[in-house]
Every structure is written in C-alpha cells, then in structure tokens.
Amino acid sequence: MLKSSPVVFVVDPDKAFSAQICGIVTSVGLQGISFDSVETFLKIHSVDRPNCLVVNSVFLTTGDSTLYKKLESLRCEMPMIVVADKHGDVTTAVTVMKNGALDYLEKPVDRSPFLDQIKIGLERDTDNEILQISKRRVTTAINSLTPRQIQVMKFCIRGERNKAIAHAMDVSIKTVEAHRAAVMNKMEAKSFVALVDDCRLIGFS
Description:
Layout: E1 7-11, H1 15-26, E2 31-35, H2 38-42, E3 51-56, H3 65-75, E4 80-84, H4 90-98, E5 103-106, H5 111-143, H6 147-157, H7 162-169, H8 173-186, H9 192-201
Parallel strand pairs: 1-2, 1-3, 3-4, 4-5
Helix pairs in contact: 6-8, 7-8
C-alpha cells in the first residue's frame, strides 16, 4: 500500500474485527492501521494525508476521562465512526453523534454503508485540511502587514471609504490608497470581496 493512500485508523480490542475492517478498506485502495488500545493510538503522529478513525464505543465510555478528552480533541480534526459491540445503547449513540461522530454502528458492520461513511469521512478530512491550509496562509499574510496596513485593512473590511479612513487616521487619501494597495498585494487578494472573505475565514475584523 502506498504511503500516500488515505488511511483508516481502527481502534478496537477485538483483533479479528480490526483485521476485518482493515481488509475492507484495503480492498478499495485505502490503508488500514489497527490499534488495540487508545494509548497506542494516541502515540501516532499527525498524518499528512486524508484519514478517518473507526473506534470502539467502549473507549468513549471509559472512566478514564483523560483518554476521553484526548480522543475528543482528535475528533475535531479526524472524522470518527463509532462502533458498538453487538447492541449499543441509545444514550451512547446520542452522545457520540452530538459530539461530532459521523455514524454509530453496531457489529457486525455492513460493508457498503460502512464504506459510504468512510468515504464521507475522508472527504470531510480533506476539506478540513484545505481549510486549515487557507487559514494558515491568511494568518501568515496578516502577520506580514505593518500596524498601519492592518489599521487600514480593518477600516476597509468594515466598508469605510478612503476619505473617511484618511480622516480617521489623520493622513492623506494618497497615503490610505498606498496602504490599501500594499494590503491587497501582501494578502494576495484578487478583489476586495476576496479580502473580506479571507478575513472572515480566521475571524479577523
């Protein structure tokens, strides 16, 4: 399996089940990596390719709150499918879905619906990675601006005209125009709308 292939992490104490899931995802060109405990899973480093997590519900109902919190923080970045041994309980199902799980399945899982959820998870992870890259790009660009340029940009994205900005900053309109041009250049914004969208992306106002 190529290292560039999307990867599905399986965290389940049932080695036979983990092997089955890894076999299913491998059959469609993905890579499956299994762990029999949360501790071993948490030792992995972040991966630079689309990924998804399949985890046994027992690890989300454990009394070890530290592990649960770590797994919960990972869920924000890694789409999660929760699997229950035999008959899962409604309370756990509702809780994991509210916490952002893609799905809550009972063993044995049906191949086709399971792969559909894996596909959704990998697509979501890819979209999230693209979003994070965009946020990093915008943050880096903003950090390259001078204090004056940031001040002008704040006025601009609020819809202030150059004349009003010049008056507020006690500078000439030409100075505002120069700062505005520098902002557009450093932010690599092709239009004013694009500039506003980039600022909204990271909550800059």
